[in-house]
Amino acid sequence: MKSRSFPKIKSLTELYERLPEEERIMVDVLRQIILENLPDHCKEKISYNVPYFYGKKGICIIWPSAIPRGGIKEGVLFGFWQGYLLKDEDQYLIHGSNRKIYYQIYKSVEEIDESKIVKLIKEAVLLDRSFKK
To answer: Per CATH, is 3-130 categorized as 3.90.1150?
Structure first.
């Protein structure tokens, strides 16, 4: 399906209906980790047809490969909008062609490392607090 003809997704229900089971599970696990670790002032919305989390600026995004324009052929990308500003002490994130977004791609739910993700979310939230609104 060409990305131009891909219908706009307006809700998580619509997104989940379009995903293969393995991607749906990974998205759900990642969302739960994020939601449990973001402060109340941070919000989630569907943007670019995928879950997008933000405070003063974008914090992170979950992009399943089943959704066009994510740049991945399989799995689920979990990326930080300001990834280039994170210390990422564990060197967990990958730096691709986008100069700002650093990410990790998961091909199975077993690959998701909650402790490393939580550490990065906390760092990203502190960074977000430093931005002017």
So the answer is: yes
In this structure, the number of other CB atoms found within 10 A of the CB of residue 68 comes to: 14
Q: Where are the domains of the chain?
A: 3-130
112 Cβ neighbours under 8 A, 6+ residues apart: 26, 29, 30, 33, 106
pLDDT in tens, 47-86: 999 999 999 999 999 999 999 988 899 999 999 999 999 9
